[in-house]
Amino acid sequence: MAGLLGDIPYGTLDLMILKTLQAMGPLHGFGLARQIEQVSENLIELNQGSVYPALQRLQQQGWIEAEWGLSETNRRAKFYSLTSAGRKQLRAEVESWRRTARLVQRFLALET
Amino acid sequence: MTPRLMMNRLLDALRQKPLDEEFDEEIQAHLEMAVEDYILHGLSAEEAEAAARRDFGHVERAKERHRDVRGFAAVDHIARHIRFGLFSFRRRPGLAAVAVLTLALGIGATSAVFSVVNGVLLKPLSYERLEDLVAVWLTAPGAPTGSEGQLSPGEALYFTAREEGRAFEEIGLWNTHRVAIARGPEPEAAVAASVTPDVFPLFRVAASYGRLFRDADAAPAAAPTAVLDYGYWLSRFGGDPTVVGNDLRVDGTERRIIGVLPAGFSLPERRADIYLPHQWDPARTIFTVSFTYRAVARLAPDVTLEQASAELARLIPVSVEQFPGGMKLEGIEMIELGPNLRPLKDDVVGDVGNALWVLLGGVALVFLIACANVANLFLVRAEERRREIAVRSAIGASRSQVAAQLFAESAVYGLTGGAIGLLLTISGVRLLKTLDPGGIPRLEEVGLHPPVFAFTFATSLLAGLLFGLLPVIRVGRQNLATALRDGGRTGSQDRRRRVNGGIIVVCQTALVLVLLVAAGLMIRSFLALRAVDVGFAEPAELLTFRVRIPEAQIADPREVALTYERISHSLQAIPGVASVGASSSVTMDGANRTGLIWIENGALGLDELPPVTRIKWITEGYFETMGIPLVVGRSISWSDIRDDVPVGVVTENFARLNFGTAAAALGRRVTTGDPARPAWREIVGVVGDIRNDGVDLPAPPVVYWPLTMLGYQTSGLFVSRSMIFALRVESPSSSGSEVPAGDPFGTLAAAQQAVWSVNPSLPLSDVQTMEGLVERSMARTSFMLSMLLIAATVALGLGVVGIYGVVSNIVSVRRREIGIRMSLGASPLEVGRMILREGMVLAGIGIAIGLTVAIALSRQLSSLLYGIDGPAHLRGGCNSRYRRFDGRCLCPRSPRRCDRSDEHSPPRLNRDPARMTTMYLTPPHGNRLRAAGAPRTTKRSHYRRLP
């Protein structure tokens, strides 16, 4: 799976998408991909095409929804936004990541 | 997967196409926005376009993954593979047609036989809780040899088991017989089942109109009643419910119709038109054992077959004591009378099961041969497509993907073949039901039921898997680099291909051989049956029909005998009828009356139990009409019958068994009935033996009595009230001698008139020719024979075509090698020999394997064979010649192919047939490739010496 997502750690793309949508409000695929690239400051190499399968998956889970709209350049584009289920899922995932991070942090602290 | 995800996925999967279009638009928008963005950042249009595409990654891959997420990836892939498989249909329609038709043949034949197996063996009898139903029979291992036929419980045991038994919930007895039903001007014959009142509750059946029998209806003094079969009610009473409550004259007795059975109900094995209650009087019941009734019982909950058996064994002596007058206790002990319970299903299906499994095995072989053929076709095609597959792998298809695609293609072929095969199955089953080969119980249950569809589907998939396997294995081993190089075929690959081809040849040869051997054994068996002397002459000229005279019509036995005599004379007067005779049962009609025969001053005393012997009551002219030869003495005449002369006639084997020779029997006296009051009868004649129970069964001893007898059973005069008249019909111009016999059925109308001119209320029933009876007796063998012959013929055809395909394929692979050989000096003849030899080696291995398997399997066949011992017959080795011509017809074509090898233009091979035979005879060893200039080996001269 890691191979499919480029160098994005497994399972984190969903979290990134949900968090970005929460922070920025409704976004189209290109905006979302660009935003993730900017936030990650090119730490990861994102195939922009790979956000779409992820978006589709999140949609099927009912965490985001999509709507056709007009972009800033008046182009027809699909805009994705968080649903309330998505917000709940995001909170759960953030909490779980924090726990994981804390756990890993503690083990890394052993070395010093 | 959560339910919601499941549902959303399903919804997405259902609208793939609009979603695809939508996603295209989305990507388009994405790329355009990215380009605009780059242009804003100062890139040129081309640079921006390239950068946007680079950022996005592989567009098609994104689409593909998007699609995977949306639907169910596996389903989607399969659909794509199937589309591809269908595409390959269009690319090679000829190959596809051959493959599909071959498969259809194999699958259709297998499914057709399976539908029979399913209907007869696997589908349960349609009774509620069938597993609790047991057929109740009795055995008497201690009875003297010569007793045959099945013993069943009699009335006394029925009453005892009903009153005192705890192991059975119900026990029911019935017997079927013919009755005359008077409605309208002419009497009709119908099949009646006389049942005890427990029979219907036993089978858990309720009336569709009215009611069924109650215990009160079975009381001796109860008013006579009847219940109608649903089908009979529909056809004869127009399905009129108001018929319930009406009266119906059955055998001269007015019976009240009290109900109609539901549609589809039938007693095991035999459908009856009308059901009558047995009205037995316990006070007059004496018999513990019967030869007449069928008994079925339903086991009480938690009672095993063994427990029920034990209880019945305990009840037998109880019944003898409670109902005195029949057998004595000592007699029961002497013959070791005991119960014999069998699950009802086993009892009904019997040994037909074996025959059907053999058949299923036979068509399974045909199926395998068909698969092997198609496997070879696919192997050739996979070879042709090596480059295509290599290209595919080069651009990123994994091995499993390639394999999946190949499998999907073969599955498409398999399923298409299966679909056409299903059509074959439908027509095959229809044909089978019209032919009704006889001897197959429950044939009406055969049909296209869900298990048959499942079976067809499963065999289709299995076929796809089987013939898809070889190409997949080959592709898996394929070396990408060599495959991509043009013409880059390595020796090791060729060898593998030849090995694969060789395996197919060996398998097919072996499979075909097994089938041919089975068919050959059946042919031998059939011929042996045909050669049997059945004991009577020219069955095609014999017309038989039954005339019953019920007690309600003519009560006086003397008058009954006179009526039969008058009918006989009036039949005799019909033009074309050479002679007329009647018997209570004709050969092979299955109606067996048996009795105990004591011999005056014989080996056994009157207090001992003699063998159970077939008895028949006959009239004057019976032996003459049937063509049964009179060995010594005289026959029975009408005057014997009129004057109650105490005489009898026995068969030759009865005479030999008891008196040593036929002549010694004359003048000896025998008796039957009650040994306490013996009514001795003198043996006045000995006649030839007859195969009474069927062509394939030994001739039993028979004792013939005159139509009427004094002192038998009842104190008064006994008369057989159901007689079968036999008419020998000869063509009017019999003086010409070479003229074939007239059509016996042509005289039927005249015969009917002749009977009615004597008594207009007597119906004719069971009209048939003796030839029909003989044929029915051989029906199972001839059915098995024709089925196996068809299977073997199809297998041989498929096998020859398949082996030819494989061999020619091998030859074409070796064109280059053959070219080299020829340029090094090998003559076309030598090359031809080499190829023939290899073909013969393969065929030889196949024959060896096939014969071994056939010998092992023929033990299975043994019970179906007559007059030959399968395995021993085979070890004689005479059967391998069946196969040899096969090797001959596949090989001679192959050398011609190598002639066409384009590297050289060597002289054409001489195709003189005599030479071909010579080649065929060459021993399968030696003669390896000879290098140019090398001295000729002595082996060469070895071949020269051959004729």
Give a nutshell description of this structure.
With 112 residues, chain A is α+β, with helices and mostly antiparallel strands. Chain A has 4 helices and 3 strands, in the order H-E-H-H-E-E-H. Chain A is 57% helix and 14% strand.
Element layout with pairings:
The complex is a heterodimer of chains A (112) and B (947).
Chain A: H1 12-24, E1 27-28, H2 29-40, H3 51-61, E2 64-70, E3 76-82, H4 84-111
Antiparallel strand pairs in A: 1-3, 2-3
Chain B: H1 3-14, H2 16-40, H3 45-56, H4 59-70, H5 73-91, H6 93-122, E1 133-139, E2 152-153, H7 155-164, E3 168-182, E4 188-195, H8 199-202, E5 209-210, E6 225-228, H9 230-237, E7 247-250, E8 253-260, E9 274-277, E10 289-290, E11 294-299, H10 305-322, H11 329-334, E12 338-343, H12 344-349, H13 352-384, H14 386-394, H15 399-435, H16 450-477, H17 480-484, H18 491-530, E13 542-548, H19 557-572, E14 577-583, E15 594-596, E16 598-599, E17 612-618, H20 622-626, E18 630-633, H21 638-642, E19 647-651, H22 652-659, H23 662-665, E20 669-671, E21 681-687, E22 702-706, E23 708-710, E24 717-719, E25 722-729, H24 748-758, E26 764-769, H25 770-777, H26 779-813, H27 815-823, H28 828-861, H29 870-875, H30 881-890, H31 893-899, H32 913-921, H33 938-944
Parallel strand pairs in B: 4-9, 6-8, 17-22, 19-21
Antiparallel strand pairs in B: 1-11, 1-12, 2-10, 3-4, 3-7, 3-11, 5-8, 6-9, 7-8, 13-25, 13-26, 14-25, 15-17, 16-20, 18-21, 19-22, 20-21, 23-24
Helix pairs in contact in B: 2-3, 2-4, 5-6, 5-15, 6-13, 6-15, 6-16, 7-10, 13-16, 13-18, 13-26, 15-16, 18-26, 18-28, 19-24, 26-31, 28-31
